[in-house]
Amino acid sequence: MPNDTAKNFARCDRGLVVAPAGCGKTHLIAESVGHATGRQLVLTHTHAGVDALRTKLTALGISSAKYRVTTIDSLALCFANAFPRLADWCCPYPNDNEEWSALRLAACRLFTCRAPRRVLQVSYDGVFVDEYQDCCGTQHALISTVAQVLPCRIVGDPLQAIYRKLHADDIARWNKVEATFPVVNVLTEPHRWRTRNSKLGEWLTDIRARLEHGNEIDFTNAYGIVKWIPSANDQNQIAACYKAFEKEGVVAICDWPRRCAAIASKTKNHFTVLESVECPDLLLAAKKIEISAGVRRLACVVAFAQACFTGMTFLEDMLKRLQEARPYRPLSPDKRRMWESMQAVVDSEQLTAVEVMMSAIEGFADKHFYRRRELWRDMKRALQGHDPGSGKSLRETAWAVRDHARRNGRRVVTKRTVATPLLIKGLEFNHALLLDAAQMKTPEELYVALTRGATSLTVLSNERTVKHVIPAWIQEKSQT
Amino acid sequence: MAVLHHLKIKNFRGIKSLDWHVNNCVVCLVGPGDSAKTTILNAIEMVLLPRWNIPFTDLDFYQSKTEEEIVIEATVGELPDALTKQDKYGFYLRGYSVLERVIHDDPANEDEQVLTIRLIVDSGLEPQWAVVKDSNPDPKTISWRDREIFGVALLGDDVDRNLTWSRGSALAKLTNSESSAQVITIANRKAREAVGEMELEQWQQVADKAKAMAREYGVPVNDLKPGLDVRAIRFGQGVLSLYDGPVSLQCFGLGSKRLAALALQEAGIGKSSIVLVDEIEHGLEPHRIRRLVKMLCDDRNDGQVIMTSHSPTPVVALSVDNLRFTRYSNGQLDVLACDANGQNALQPVIRLCPLAIFARMVIVCEGKTEEALCDILNSVWAVSHGGTGFEIRGIVAVTGGGSFAPAAARQLAKLGYKTMLFGDSDRAINPTEQELRAAGAKVMLWDGHMATEQRIATDVPLSTLQALVSMGCEIKGEQSCIDSCKTELGKLGANGSSVTNTNIGEWQANGIDEPRLRAAIGHAAKTSEWFKNLNDGRRLAEIVVAVLPQIAATPLGLTLQALEAWVYAE
């Protein structure tokens, strides 16, 4: 991108740069930090985002004295914990969304007080915020308060704002955002596709304009750029997945986690499931295992194993024998160990027996396939980290494991993944495989799905064309 | 920059406990000897001065009890921005309300933003400096470099060190360390060359012998000769120092050295800083003391000066709200200040007689007459008590400016002085006698609601009374004297017409009874102010003192005896 973009961005007092997918947003922020004077505070949403920015800044050779990268919520938390009385904040770590919202509002209050303002002004000369479309209302309020103290430049793409449904009541209207931060630039160069499939990049720029205007997108007009499969029935979906078995860096996109799990098992686990952030299946399974006892608990564990692996029928047999109190003489030492561990789960009240049984099951895992590796891994972590004396339930421990993983951004991304747009936003793959275009209910979801693959895009759709309403934020703009 | 708002000390040397809100930018600590004034300065120095190698010993602990750790906490305001960054101590900011004299753990918008630095020394004798805040369980260590930012200058004992370029001295800080090292290298080289050219016959002979021996042993030496060792001159021990022409600054008088050391420290840290001066008068003539006080206190806009003193000169240059009185008892140290209404009463007293501040016991006299009386009594009592008068017993008699005397006495009593109010009982005093006694002062007023002159006139023998009247005539003129006596007699209902001269005997012969006579003279002396200055007061006192044995049983005599007893109580 021309040098001026970054320089001008670094100099403005308040500004927004709209960055469509793959147009070099991270590079822009890093370069701008380099051009700006003094120390910059760079804010994003997840720790994965923090890592990505730090990597880019180091790659561009910018001295670490020039910046500090952290998340918006971490900033709020460390200031609130430093001045608890001033912020009226008493708990050291928020536990749910409500508490996080309260924390951000407390931090807003703080930044109107003299002393915290001084700390902010003295420590930094400016602020950059990434992924602004993911900000909820309280985060926008917080950044707006900070913008009154320091020059503040933000980057985001409203057409990728798919987190809205997670924010419930706490939504930040994009028009309000643009009112606070005037647009200074729009990135246009589709860098992601330049070397690998520049035609795809151009096509995606075109469909962005179509989506913004609510016009239809015709897949038949993209011959040679996008592979369109005219029917999106189950058979075709699986066939398309099979065709991708040889490739690496493939993502198959569908709308619901259940469907992802189904695809994964039907493709004999050549595709693995990327668990959702909250992972309700983990929490539910944890709860069930904890509150049940005896044979019922064993049944829950077996059900969980079957959800995570294929080929666990022998477990079902062993369970039946236990339930009917039939004798069982295991032939191999592995199976004997399995049988003993199952009996231990029935007899013991402790959850450690469940952990032992899970290890025993893993002994068989090389013969059978992981269907939901992440789910299994995190249940084990929850059991290992569970402390009965602390008063926390297994479900709460499991939630903490997921929360920790989310903040540290450790995702399990394998060669071929099946996931929903929510989970893969911001990530880059080689080949994107949209299993049914009709499953993408909003223009934002469709845009995110279509822009994930840098080398190729395959779309299955019953209709030749697809048309969405004009995005909400553009509608609101034309109304005012 | 940096202002000390609050100091807390526990278990440090003589101080078991101190909790002091400083509350002024210029503070002069006064107090009896061994009341830990210098210890306070040392404590501030230890917690804020950037020294990293302070050697602590068991003796630094209160009563050498090393189980109780030394804690020194300084709460400092007017912080430079460098310290309030998020990476530094921004998250440890607290608030100080100067009006309420309270530290708030979180800084409210009206508060001064402050940091609390704590020094802890436990039985391991390792000092640890950290910035602390109640809401944060983990104190943050503060390095000596950051403590340097506070800019504290101390003028204490080791003056000479600051006049040399030694490690950590003011001069060293002003100099680029590389250029100092270069000087040493060049000096070494030149010295080596100079020694090389010297005639070192004796040493050369030994070197020749050494060469022969060494060659025998197979050491391949050719030209062995003595030279200056490379490590002869080394930086660190104050190798370079300041000279005025050929004379080293270290040869100057103590006063000048102290001033130079202070000037150098200020040059390094700039004028806005906390300056600690122990015994500001040490080594200096009064005019240089005044100049130093002016430089430190008047000619600066920010920063703070905390000094100790045993001399009245600085006290006179300052006002009473700069003074702090250290009161020490069994380890508990209190630093007292005048309260607002006490200041008005005490200020004129101190202006007139700054020595009072340094006394052990103070007699606050209502007027000059009483002060003169004390003065003469002092010379008499000194003789009868083996030469020990007020001066040796640490007693000062001051005039309290009339109506201010009781207020001044109360304030002094509250500040811990053994105080006595000595004066007339003819008017009600404010504060009242009870209030004075409640504050701890002794109240010595004449019996019978009388002024001093009246009491004297009532109790002395007639011959003395005659002498009094004659003195009055000398001072005020005979006619004026007679007139006042006539007027007073008239007020008392006696026939004043017969009074035509100053012969008392004649008055009596003319029918004026003794009590009226005495009362009239007393009144006249008081209202016409016959003895209202020190000289005349002294003359009056002399004639009274001459008849002390005769008046022993009178109220006058009893009061004076009580006064003597108070003065000479142990």
Q: Explain this structure to me?
A:
The complex is a heterodimer of chains A (480) and B (570). Chain A has helices at residues 3-11, 25-35, 47-59, 72-82, 84-87, 97-110, 114-123, 137-147, 164-167, 174-180, 191-194, 198-213, 234-243, 257-266, 280-291, 294-308, 313-323, 333-347, 352-365, 373-385, 394-408, 421-424, 443-450, 472-479; strands at 14-18, 40-44, 67-71, 126-129, 152-156, 183-186, 217-218, 226-229, 250-253, 272-273, 416-419, 429-434, 453-460, 465-466. Chain A is of the alpha/beta class and 480 residues long. Helix content of chain A is 52%, strand content 12%. In chain B, the strands form three sheets. In chain B, strands 1, 2, 3, 4, 5, 6, 7, 8, 9, 10, 13, 14, 15 and 16 form a 14-stranded mixed β-sheet that branches. In chain B, strand 5 (94-97) and strand 6 form a beta hairpin. Chain B starts with a strand and ends with a helix. Chain A binds chain B through residues 78-79, 81-86, 113-115, 118-120, 122-124, and chain B through 81-82, 84-87, 90-93, 95, 104-109, 113, 135-136.
